[in-house]
């Protein structure tokens, strides 16, 4: 979501956003964002103390006054000047960072595992109690295309019990292409896995989402190896992966393909060379707001800038 908002601000508004992230698990998400936004006006600030990180970026780049931001939208796109001064700060996983004031609070809910055991960290997956929806401005149910309408209704009902006036949006990650490391800039069609043997290897918060996306691309068979979120692959992991690949090769009589997410690639792409001679593909996706509500969602963002 932070990438979706930052792209929109930079491309549609000409405003330079600052993304503030803690840099969990070796900073895999921060590395991915830095790679995606290289050569743009988007800035990535990494650090546990996000107020201090923001202050250093504002000191270095300057800032745009809030009343001037909306005027950027009125410029003719062909003549729009992208300012290097920071116009908006976007806090990734920022709801619990209560020391910083904010103009808009968006809560992301994973439809595949919305509440877990309903306990807070470290005893469960929740960063905030469900009652925190009461101070949110919007909720986005992510991966909503991968669950049933009945499950979606239950999730919406739980959210509205905490805040019955809260706008709720649905989103998904839409696959766009693959790339084969280290050739990041060469886009490969999603059809490259059609009727292939695929091993999904991931260390992300929702590995089911990767597997389900790949299954929809028509591979002959999909296997999986799931690791905990932000897991740093070690030599023993590589040995386990190669052993599974050899098993699949012997079972089906053809060499399987390894599929990973961009987050897994950016965590430590050098170790992927250890998987030779097997082919590694990295799946690239973009967030999409569903049910034709993207314009409505963007209006919510614009109101927060006014």
UniProtKB/TrEMBL annotation:
Keywords assigned by UniProt, alphabetized: ATP-binding, Kinase, Lipid A biosynthesis, Lipid biosynthesis, Lipid metabolism, Nucleotide-binding, Transferase
GO CC term, one of those recorded: membrane
Keyword ATP-binding found: yes
EC category name: transferase
MF terms (GO), sorted A to Z: ATP binding; lipid-A 4'-kinase activity
InterPro entries given in the database record: LpxK
GO biological process assignments: lipid A biosynthetic process
Record-listed E.C. numbers: 2.7.1.130
Pathway(s) the chain acts in: Glycolipid biosynthesis; lipid IV(A) biosynthesis; lipid IV(A) from (3R)-3-hydroxytetradecanoyl-[acyl-carrier-protein] and UDP-N-acetyl-alpha-D-glucosamine: step 6/6
Protein name as it appears in the record: tetraacyldisaccharide 4'-kinase
Organism: Lactuca saligna
Upper classification of the organism: Eukaryota, Viridiplantae, Streptophyta, Embryophyta, Tracheophyta
